[in-house]
């Protein structure tokens, strides 16, 4: 069976990870421009000052995407490139850059799929409290409306936020992302709520303005499974899914927070400060979401955390390798002998991906799903002059097969975006952990080179995965 004709085969990137040009053409300073230069924060002191210079090479890159036959390119907009100070005056050269990227995509028949926030917050707003401050939500809505106005005549697919759980947990629990705060659970839950309010306001504004197209949010999808049938570990699975999935998906798709977590947080004095008006907003806007974006890489295998082990902070403990307990110490993730893992300890489990999509359909019904990220982070084998990334081909093939099974079962998956279209800067792993179909040679003027997987994905798209 071929994938449906309107199913989008895509690939993704993010502004800070590809653009570079961090202080060019009027762009303002982002929190990552500052944070990445604090000694010890990033891997090998890497930062996005240049990244892979997509800002100057986007035509070449989009030309390669067109050669691959890519149907859609998911990219993010650097907020400080549009509003150097977070709000106030618009930087026309910033608008011009994204107009050029969008027009280049459309010239090649590639659907632009735009993420508004992929972690690069204007530093001015970070200094005013970042996502702890309601002013940041106000500024985000203004940023979103400006982008809708500037690009909404050609962009029909909008994601408000990428992976709220990551920038809030690493920002306020492990300190591996700006503002680098550790152990502040109250701030963690408050910032997630403030982001959901900002999302809901942007969705309502998009719909009220009558723009064509669709809008949603992208969340991490990291389904939890108990290591065995022991009751205490099955309870750990329940707890993990409530906190890692329901806390994020329920307010968006159901318009209310999961009672299990609300009750638990109330007991600990960690419930966010929220108003009836905000809760009404979430309730009112939930049905307006056109889709949910899933970033799936791996499941989490969990068990009761029976030791005094507490969540550790810092970059090394934030790269997703199992072993870190939950913020409240209730459960921990574990490596299992009978599972297969990447070099960064992420389990390769397409079966869990399919099982997880079934879980989502059971809880949220027929909401449209885009797989907005999926891919293999690896140190690619180079054989002679060729990048023979066979492990990535095998990973994506097995996960695309799971997507195909889901579609055949009637789960409403409408697109698949590989992370990442091109090798780029990893926030915590520098240029060591790569995901792209296109290699970037940092020893040779950032020259681009097609990997083995480039040609493989080209064939998958051309045949609409008929053979999977
Ligand atoms: C932590 C990590 C990684 O480096 O493996 O997860 C996968 C992927 O998720 C994306 O949303 C991030 O923008 C990108 O940089 C990657 O980040």
TrEMBL record:
Entry annotation: catalytic residues: 373
Entry protein name: Beta-glucosidase
GO MF assignments: beta-galactosidase activity
Catalyzed reactions per annotation: Hydrolysis of terminal, non-reducing beta-D-glucosyl residues with release of beta-D-glucose
EC number: 3.2.1.21
Family: Belongs to the glycosyl hydrolase 1 family.
InterPro entries found in the cross-reference section: GH, GH_1_N_CS, Glyco_hydro_1, Glyco_hydro_1_AS, Glyco_hydro_1_beta-glucosidase
Superkingdom of the source species: Bacteria
Keywords of the record: Carbohydrate metabolism, Cellulose degradation, Glycosidase, Hydrolase, Polysaccharide degradation
PROSITE patterns: GLYCOSYL_HYDROL_F1_1 (PS00572), GLYCOSYL_HYDROL_F1_2 (PS00653)
Group of enzyme by EC: hydrolase
Keyword Isomerase in record: no
UniProt keyword Hydrolase present: yes
Organism per entry: Exiguobacterium acetylicum (Brevibacterium acetylicum)
């Amino acid at each position: 069976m071929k994938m449906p004709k309107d199913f989008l085969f895509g690939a993704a990137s993010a502004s800070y990870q590809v653009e570079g040009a961090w202080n060019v053409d009027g762009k303002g300073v982002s929190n990552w421009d500052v944070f990445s230069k604090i000694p010890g924060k990033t891997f090998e002191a890497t930062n996005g000052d240049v990244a892979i210079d997509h800002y100057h090479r986007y035509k070449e890159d989009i030309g390669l995407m067109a050669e691959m036959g890519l149907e859609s390119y998911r990219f993010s907009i650097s907020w400080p490139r549009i509003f150097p100070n977070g709000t106030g005056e618009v930087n026309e050269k910033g608008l011009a850059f994204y107009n050029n990227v969008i027009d280049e995509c459309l010239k090649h028949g590639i659907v632009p799929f735009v993420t508004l926030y992929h972690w690069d917050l204007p530093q001015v707003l970070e200094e005013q409290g970042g996502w702890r401050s309601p002013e940041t939500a106000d500024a985000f809505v203004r940023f979103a409306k400006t982008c809708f106005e500037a690009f909404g005549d050609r962009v029909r697919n909008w994601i408000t936020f990428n992976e709220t759980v990551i920038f809030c947990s690493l920002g306020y629990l492990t300190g591996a992302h700006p503002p680098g705060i550790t152990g502040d659970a109250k701030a963690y839950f408050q910032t997630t709520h403030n982001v959901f309010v900002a999302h809901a306001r942007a969705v309502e504004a998009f719909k009220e303005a009558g723009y064509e197209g669709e809008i949603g949010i992208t969340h991490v999808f990291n389904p939890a499974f108990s290591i065995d049938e022991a009751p205490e570990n099955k309870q750990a699975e329940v707890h993990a899914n409530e906190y890692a999935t329901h806390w994020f998906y329920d307010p968006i798709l159901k318009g209310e927070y999961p009672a299990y977590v609300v009750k638990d947080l109330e007991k600990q004095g960690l419930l966010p400060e929220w108003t009836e008006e905000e809760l009404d907003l979430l309730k009112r806007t939930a049905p307006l979401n056109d889709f949910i974006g899933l970033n799936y890489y791996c499941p989490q295998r969990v068990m009761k955390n029976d030791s005094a082990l507490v969540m550790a902070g810092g970059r090394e403990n934030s790269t997703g390798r199992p072993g870190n307990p939950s913020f409240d110490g209730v459960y921990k993730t574990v490596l299992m002998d009978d599972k297969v893992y990447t070099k960064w300890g992420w389990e390769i489990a397409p079966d869990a991906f399919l099982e997880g999509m079934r879980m989502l359909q059971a809880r949220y019904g027929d909401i449209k799903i885009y797989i907005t990220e999926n891919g293999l982070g690896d140190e690619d084998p180079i054989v002679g002059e060729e990048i023979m990334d066979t492990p990535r081909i095998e990973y994506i093939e097995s996960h695309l097969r799971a997507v195909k099974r889901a579609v055949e079962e009637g789960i409403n998956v409408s697109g698949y975006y590989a992370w990442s279209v091109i090798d780029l800067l990893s926030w915590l792993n520098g240029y060591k952990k790569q995901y792209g179909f296109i290699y970037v040679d940092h020893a040779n003027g950032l020259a681009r080179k097609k990997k083995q997987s480039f040609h493989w994905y080209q064939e998958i798209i051309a045949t609409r995965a008929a053979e999977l």
